[in-house]
Write a structure and sequence with these properties.
By secondary structure, the chain is of the alpha/beta class. The chain has helices at residues 33-40, 83-102, 117-129, 155-158, 175-187, 205-220; strands spanning 7-9, 17-22, 46-50, 55-57, 65-67, 72-74, 80-81, 110-115, 136-140, 162-167, 192-197. Belongs to the AB hydrolase superfamily. AB hydrolase 2 family.
Length: 221
C-alpha cells in the first residue's frame, strides 16, 4: 500500500468522531481537503482522515501510473478489476479504523466515505471485510464491484447506515451501477438512502449540505 501518510485534519475541539475519506482515481489525499474543512465548520469535534492511494499503472488508462486504489483492467464486464488490489486497499481502511479506535474514537462514531473508486473501496471494507460497528458509510458517485448475489450480511453490518449520492448525468460511473449497489444493500436490510443530483462525475454544494445534515443527525443520535 501507499507509503504516503494520510492527511489528518484535526477539529478545533477534541475529536469525538472521525470520517475516513478516500479520493477517486488519479486524485490524491488533498482532493477532499476543502470539503472536509467545510464540513468541520458545521461538525465540531469531527476528525477527517484522508489517505492516499498508491501510485501504480492503470490498464484502462493506457498503463499510465497514477494514484489508484486498484487497477481497472476493462470497463466490461462492469469494470473488470484487480481484486487483490481492492482487498489490499480495504485492508488499509480497516487499519485506519483500528488506529482511530486506538486513539479513543468509538467504532460507532467512525464513518467511511469515498468518491468513485474510493467509494467502491469503502463499500467493500464495510460490507465484505469489517465485522464490527460503524457510524455509517457515505458512497459518492460509486459502485460496488465485489458485491455478490448470494452474499448475506450479519446484524452488525445491517446496522451500518449508508447514504448513496450520485450525479444523474455521470458519464464516468453510470448512475445505474450506483443504484444497483443501493438496491443490493436495501435488499439485505441496510438503512440505505439514495440521493440524485443534476450533475456529472463530481461533488456539488447541495450534495455537501446533504452530507453535513446526514452526519449531524447520526452524530446527534
Amino acid at each position: 500500500m501507499s507509503s504516503v501518510a494520510p492527511l489528518i485534519l484535526e477539529p478545533a475541539q477534541p475529536a469525538s468522531a472521525c470520517v475516513i475519506w478516500l479520493h477517486g482515481l488519479g486524485a490524491d489525499r488533498y482532493d477532499f481537503q476543502p470539503v472536509a474543512e467545510a464540513l468541520q465548520r458545521v461538525l465540531p469535534g469531527v476528525r477527517f482522515v484522508l489517505p492516499q492511494a498508491p501510485t501504480r499503472p492503470v490498464t484502462l488508462n493506457g498503463g499510465w501510473s497514477m494514484p489508484s486504489w486498484y487497477d481497472i483492467v476493462a470497463l466490461e464486464p462492469e469494470r473488470a478489476l484487480d481484486l487483490a488490489q481492492l482487498e489490499d486497499s480495504a485492508s488499509r481502511v480497516l487499519e485506519l479504523i483500528e488506529a482511530q479506535r486506538a486513539s479513543g474514537i468509538p467504532a460507532e462514531r467512525i464513518f467511511l466515505a469515498g468518491f468513485s473508486q474510493g467509494g467502491a473501496v469503502v463499500l467493500h471494507a464495510a460490507f465484505r471485510r469489517w465485522a464490527g460497528a460503524l457510524g455509517g458509510v457515505l458512497a459518492l458517485s460509486t459502485y460496488a464491484p465485489a458485491f455478490e448475489p448470494g452474499q448475506t450480511l450479519g446484524a452488525i453490518q445491517q446496522a451500518h447506515p449508508v447514504l448513496c449520492l450520485h450525479g444523474s448525468e455521470d458519464a464516468v460511473v453510470d448512475p445505474a451501477l450506483g443504484r444497483r449497489a443501493h438496491d443490493w444493500l436495501a435488499e439485505r436490510g441496510v438503512a440505505v438512502e439514495w440521493r440524485s443530483y443534476p450533475m456529472g462525475h463530481e461533488v456539488g454544494n447541495a450534495e455537501i449540505r446533504d452530507i453535513a445534515l446526514w452526519l449531524s443527525e447520526r452524530l446527534a443520535a
